[in-house]
Amino acid sequence: MKSLFVFAPIILTLGCATQLTLEGSSVRLVSDATGCDFVGTVSGSNSMGMSTSQDADGAMNTLRNKAAAMGANAVKIINVDSDSEATTAIAEALSCDID
User: 56-70: buried (b, 16+ CB within 10 Å) or exposed (e) per residue?
Assistant: First the structure.
């Protein structure tokens, strides 16, 4: 019975998408990069979700977290590739004047 309590948190964690950090939550998605400065290219991938939707959320959270770590405040999605096993997203990390 004790082993169940030890492994339960591990098993539950495996089905979760990457969590959005506080810094990552301030990164906005933009469709137009006019007036923004290019910071770099970021990517995110997730295959640990219980559904394609969770994988997509995890991939987006990862790239927003990475963009924030680079000093960006916005991302413009370049490509999203999703299938039954994983989702990978690629975006431009940007520094924009956002109100």
Answer: bbbbbbbbbbbbbee
